[in-house]
Write a structure and sequence with these properties.
Blueprint lengths: L2 H9 L1 E7 L10 H16 L3 E8 L3 E8 L5 H23 L1 H4 L19 E4 L3 H13 L4 H7 L12 H5 L17
Antiparallel strand pairs: 1-3, 1-4, 2-3
Length: 184
């Protein structure tokens, strides 16, 4: 492993994707997206991790982050998914009972499931991989299956994304971000 790759590995950056159960659309509704954004803000304020890049899509979330010392990604993901699921499902019970039924699993341990159990987690060990994933995340809302339904033409037009922070140099509306360009 070269010195550059070793330096990136030592930083501890992670590319994470969490998907909604059965790929159902949830976060196209503002009330549910706001729950996820508030939970991310809580994690950052508690200094569980530094968030560099994100996008919250209607049925999944992509994150580029670095877990801070004395925290474990497994614990963070468990708590994040549990809290957001509880809040979203509770809100659905009160306002969207027809939507709630899409998440019924009806096991003895669990009645509903918001997030898929598996999480796609990759170590970022190269500068090129970091840049590629950041661009992928920011352009995700422009992919053919999303662009029309989201009504956007540029990455920075999507409100649940860090693209505006990077492309326009403005602060993020929801979250305190760390700038990955400082790591390059």
């Amino acid at each position: 492993m070269g010195k550059f790759a070793k330096r990136f590995q030592d930083i501890g950056l992670l590319f994470i994707t969490n998907s909604v159960f059965n790929k159902e659309y949830v976060f196209h509704r503002r009330r549910y997206a706001e729950i996820v954004m508030a939970s991310l803000r809580h994690c950052i304020e508690r200094q569980w991790f530094e968030l560099y890049v994100y996008v919250l899509m209607p049925n999944h979330i992509h994150l580029l982050l670095k877990v801070n010392e004395n925290h474990a990604i497994e614990q963070i993901l468990r708590d994040f998914k549990k809290f957001t699921a509880q809040q979203v499902l509770l809100t659905m019970r009160e306002t969207d009972s027809d939507m709630l039924s899409r998440f019924w699993v009806g096991t003895r341990r669990q009645k509903y499931e918001l997030w898929r159990k598996d999480t796609d987690l990759k170590n970022v060990v190269a500068r090129e991989f970091l840049i590629q994933k950041a661009e992928y995340i920011h352009h995700n809302p422009l992919r053919a299956r999303w662009a029309d339904s989201l009504g956007i033409k540029e990455p920075q037009d999507y409100q649940y994304s860090s693209a505006r922070f990077y492309l326009e140099g403005t602060g993020d509306k929801y979250l305190k971000l760390s700038d990955f360009r400082e790591l390059l």
